[in-house]
């Protein structure tokens, strides 16, 4: 019996140390992720208000593409919704390859065709496109694809430390009220541990979901490559390399054909024929998708004949497809509407709070250990497992 208790004590001590040192070494990254994620939750609404978006209109897509193309030297690659307003769009984004190897987004009014903004899609500085810079920082650490892999790895470590923290701080039967009894936290150390533990218990499950879905997005390419080998998975339609036709049906007709293939689909975007992919790929949102506005259903249309080459209905796709495609909807909170997004915002804010209280408590404890007189006079640290 004594041996079993000793083994359990050593295991618990190991989990405490893992939780502590992961927090100390990676906590600052997680705090930054939390802050940038918080700012991104409602960034489109803020951007829409700042832009002074015009009323909805009904100019043809081909007209809007032509208006945007006059501002760029490269051909347009795609056009799509810029704000979450399917059915009544007022601003569309037209996307181009930039001369520096990146991408540019030209925003156009759907009612007048006027160019509202010309932005770099993946800026390395916040000037001119703060929201996309925050997105680039949040998802890629401003380091491109390699940065995305680093963020994915840090998400897996956050998943581990969140699970360990919840297990260590989980109150025993009948002690839940005591875990949140602020009036009983008399010393500074008790207050720091108390807030750290209480905060972790309140947002622990949300942090697990955010870490898991964030890692799934970062490793999305790798997961899609191995998924068909493990489970039923619908691969994307493979576009055979062919020469661009001299004449094409145009974006408007391609979207109309796609909506005939998926009558309940709402327009989201359309990829235009390019040398590397000489087809129209119309993206629609169908009922039943978790992506509440930027759906993932795709209809592929031949640019010259208008023949439907492939139909992918995300709502009826294999489970593995739906799980991977739902990662962003869960991570952003949009799967639960406004309430879900507010909860994600609060969970994001909790990361810097947990980091500050955890580091502060650790430093305070180290100081007390160096001064035995203070440590002897301090109240017993009943919340130590929540480090």
Structure in a nutshell:
53% of the residues lie in helices and 12% in strands. It has 387 residues and is of the alpha+beta class.
Structure explained in plain terms:
The chain is of the alpha+beta class and 387 residues long. The protein contains 13 helices and eight strands. The chain has three domains: 2-43 and 141-224 and 337-386, no CATH class; 57-133, Nuclear Transport Factor 2, Chain: A (Roll); 231-331, no CATH class. It has helices spanning 2-41, 43-51, 61-69, 130-140, 144-169, 176-179, 188-218, 220-230, 251-261, 319-325, 327-332, 337-370, 372-377; strands spanning 76-81, 91-97, 103-109, 115-120, 266-271, 280-285, 297-301, 308-312. Strands 4-3-2-1-5-6-7-8 form an eight-stranded antiparallel beta sheet, covered by helices on one side. Helix 1 (2-41) crosses helix 5, helix 5 crosses helix 7 (188-218) and helix 7 packs across helix 12. The protein is elongated and about 80 Å long. It starts with a helix and ends in a 10-residue tail after the last helix. Residues 377-387 have low confidence and may be disordered.
List the keywords:
387 residues; alpha+beta; Nuclear Transport Factor 2, Chain: A; 3 domains; 8-stranded antiparallel sheet; 8 strands
